[in-house]
Amino acid sequence: MPNYPYDQLVLTPHVVDLSRSPLAGHFDAETYVLGAFNPGMTVLPNGNILLMVRVAEALRNPVRDGKVHAIRWERGAYVLDAWPLELADTADPRKFMLHGGGWKVMALTSLSWLLPVEMTPDGLEMVAIHYDKAIAPQGSYQCYGIEDARISRIENRYWMTTCSVSPERHSTTLYTSDNGLDWDFQGIVLDHQNKDMLLFEGLVDGKYWAQTRPLGDLYFAYPPGSEWRPGPSINLATSPDGLHWKPHIEPHIRPHAGTVATARMGGGAPPILTEIGGKRGWLSLWHGVEPKEIVGIYRTYWTLLDEADPTRALATSHTPLLEPDAELTRPLEDMLYLRDVVFTTGVIDAGDRFIIASGEADLACRVTHVPKEAFSE
């Protein structure tokens, strides 16, 4: 990966004041910030950048008295649940699997909420942390937390998709705002296990467009010799109002059979309208995952989609735009619980460069300035 002019961590778990957390005072157990990462990003009316940071708040000592504990929202309060250790597989530090259900059942080692952090226009320095504007669970459909905000500005209104987690469903929820700081909940827009919903920053032929990524435990095989690999892929959907979505009938961005680097993929930053190499279109930043151990290696790739027909790719690159950087997290070595992950969640066109926001190692927020000439097929 080339050296970019600015590529740094701009927010780490140390910055978050948990005395101002939505969870503070609800139960008698110490918590800590497992990660402050995967920030949605947009430009505020005053020109500053907003990072909507996912704060994963975890129990300091989840295992005690022969049980493993998790945090859950219930009727306006936060409570602790306990499961016998013999029923739990705790190999993945982000979650634990529960045996004996006949299918995969899991609980999380943390509960996530969203913290608005205002940055300078270059995204590199902090201006203010808006604890009073934090977004936390408000219903049983998100009792295990709200994750991974993606923000799009469409016709002078801010639209934010989030992933809400509960036993009821693993859904995409939508919030809207007139100023980027005060958000109104609009409800569930995609149902069970459809993650990484990204709204295009603008209408196409009068319609809202979005990238989605349905998940499942079963994928049907492509025929032998196919250029495609079965598994998670990025789909398209359209809507007349941004609330009611219809999946597009043709496939979108799929994993290539010739590489394991994108054996699993999903949307990264909401597509923005820009120009690259003399071609104008929607810039889509997405993640590809190479299998490795439990989590895999996450990298960021790009595709330029046709302005009038986003189903058509104008250009793409099989060389990663961003890769995990161990040097960035070296000062946080004692806090690392996984490695090899860069998860891009926002992009802003800043003239001669793009400002890109990512989560690094599910731990911290990373901002990278990428010159436009770095985009080559």
Automatic annotation (TrEMBL):
Any Pfam family: Glyco_hydro_130
Keyword terms, alphabetized: Glycosidase, Glycosyltransferase, Hydrolase, Transferase
Gene Ontology molecular function: any one: hydrolase activity, acting on glycosyl bonds
InterPro entries found in the cross-reference section: Glyco_hydro_beta-prop_sf, Mannoside_phosphorylase
Family classification: Belongs to the glycosyl hydrolase 130 family.
Listed name of the protein: Glycosidase
